[in-house]
Design goal:
Layout lengths: L1 H28 L16 E2 L14 E2 L8 E2 L14 E2 L6 H5 L2 E8 L2 H6 L3 E6 L5 E5 L4 E6 L4 E11 L2 E14 L2 E9 L4 E9 L1
Parallel strand pairs: 1-2, 3-4
Antiparallel strand pairs: 5-6, 5-12, 6-7, 7-8, 8-9, 9-10, 10-11, 11-12
Length: 203
């Protein structure tokens, strides 16, 4: 009888040890990354969960506030504000001729009396028939010009009438520095004169 009682307690102790071990194994197998603390072993996948973001991760189930929108911009290579890193066009493209088609204030520095006397304080630029074409209205004369997507301005040689000089050839070049500033140098030449003016145009 004493032997049987000892055997009974030994068997009971064995079952208790097995039960505790099983519980520990169950607890350790529960994935502590599950936000609900459940037993479905769901893992956290951190990332951007906004589907309009550049780094959207469709597999993410936990947003880590990493979303960025740097891939948005102008991706038309012919535009003045073309962004080589943009992969999604956001409709922001502007073109140099469009920017320049406006009335600009003018500050001029001339090395002669003729151009300096006729350069006004404002000039009006209009787009021409073809893309990149410009017409620069100085009041008493108009110059044809072109501007490319980099903002490089070209004024080919053309004859204009200035005061008592009937055949003065004017040419020039310049650059659209930003959407509010351009710098243009024009040169007037004839048998009697050879003058240059640097014009700073601002909006």
């Amino acid at each position: 009888m004493n032997f049987n009682l000892k055997a009974y307690f030994l068997i009971l102790a064995s079952f208790s040890i097995i039960a505790v071990a099983c519980k520990k194994e169950d607890d350790s197998s529960t994935d502590n990354t599950n936000p609900d603390g459940g037993n479905n072993n769901t893992e956290f996948i951190f990332g951007c969960m906004v589907d309009t973001a550049c780094n959207y991760n469709p597999l993410a189930n936990q947003d880590n506030e990493s979303c960025n929108y740097s891939c948005y911009g102008c991706n038309d290579e012919t535009a003045y504000n073309y962004d080589a890193e943009a992969t999604i066009d956001d409709g922001s493209c502007v073109y140099a001729a469009q920017i320049m088609a406006s009335t600009w204030s003018v500050e001029s520095e001339c090395d002669g009396f003729l151009l300096g006397a006729v350069i006004p304080s404002e000039v009006t630029l209009e787009e021409g028939q073809n893309e990149g074409d410009l017409m620069i209205n100085f009041g008493i004369f108009t110059l044809n010009a072109t501007v490319n997507n980099l903002g490089i301005i070209n004024i080919p040689p053309q004859d204009v009438s200035l005061m008592d000089f009937s055949l003065v050839t004017i040419n020039g070049s310049g650059v659209l520095q930003n959407e509010e500033t351009a710098v243009v140098t024009i040169t007037a030449s004839s048998l009697l004169i050879n003058e240059s003016c640097t014009l700073t145009l601002t909006l």
